[in-house]
């Protein structure tokens, strides 16, 4: 579709990070935070539209992502997706998460906790981390026309930085929950021994 960052470019632009990279992902700078917050003021007026555009584009550029969504798995007609109440609702949930992330950019501990929890919940949705960076790329493509002349290379870089940071934490949360679930399913004799430190 016309956005240079969508499709295969998403992997290179957003990086296929693993959990060791979570600590290496940069938090946006103060200047970037201001750019994100200013641009969000314009974007939030069209959050439902952006949410739908983002997911329709995601399913166009990465049809394998539909497998994660039970309701959309077999829908081939993109027009049907554009008018889907379920897709609109999911798009609004994702946009709500983005809004909360923007609001917490100045509150690092709260942002980290939010992103880690979302990653943990995505484990239970069976939504693997390999798809997370695609959403950021499609969000950026969806908001460019809304911001028009306000869209600059610096604004784009600020949003990329935020999404890289948040998705690295989501991936970390997913991995933590995966480990926790494996530990729960192990029988007591298969669990690593806990050392008794009581005297």
Automatic annotation (TrEMBL):
Highest taxon listed in the record's lineage: Eukaryota
Name this protein carries in UniProt: X globin
**UniProt subunit comment:** Monomer. Homodimers and homotetramers. Mainly monomeric but also detected as part of homodimers and homotetramers.
Recorded hits in Gene3D superfamilies, A to Z, give: Globins (1.10.490.10)
Keywords from the named record: Heme, Iron, Metal-binding, Oxygen transport, Transport
Globin domain boundaries:
27-175
Q: Does the keyword Nucleotide-binding apply?
A: no
Entries under PROSITE patterns matching the protein = GLOBIN
Instruction: Give the UniProt family note.
Output: Belongs to the globin family.
Gene Ontology CC terms: membrane
User: What PANTHER family does its record include?
Assistant: BLR2807 PROTEIN, X GLOBIN
GO molecular function ontology, one term from the record: heme binding
Q: Which organism is it from?
A: Seriola lalandi dorsalis
Q: Which Gene Ontology BP terms does the record give? A: response to hypoxia
Tell me if GTP-binding is a UniProt keyword of this record.
Answer: no
């Amino acid at each position: 579709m016309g956005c240079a960052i969508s499709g295969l470019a998403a992997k290179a632009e957003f990086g296929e990070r693993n959990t060791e990279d979570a600590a290496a992902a940069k938090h946006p700078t103060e200047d970037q935070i201001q750019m994100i917050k200013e641009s969000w003021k314009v974007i939030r007026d069209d959050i439902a539209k952006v949410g739908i555009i983002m997911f329709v584009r995601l399913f166009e550029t990465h049809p394998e992502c539909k497998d994660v969504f039970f309701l959309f798995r077999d829908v081939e007609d993109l027009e049907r997706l554009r008018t889907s109440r379920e897709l609109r609702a999911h798009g609004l949930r994702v946009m709500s998460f983005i809004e909360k992330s923007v609001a917490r950019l100045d509150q690092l501990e709260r942002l980290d906790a939010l992103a880690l929890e979302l990653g943990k919940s995505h484990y239970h949705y069976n939504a693997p981390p390999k798809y997370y960076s695609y959403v950021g790329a499609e969000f950026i493509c969806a908001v460019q026309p809304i911001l028009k002349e306000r869209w600059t290379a610096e604004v784009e870089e600020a949003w990329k930085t935020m999404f890289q940071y948040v998705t690295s934490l989501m991936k970390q949360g997913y991995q933590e929950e995966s480990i926790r679930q494996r530990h729960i399913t192990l029988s007591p004799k298969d669990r690593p021994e806990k050392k008794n430190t009581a005297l």
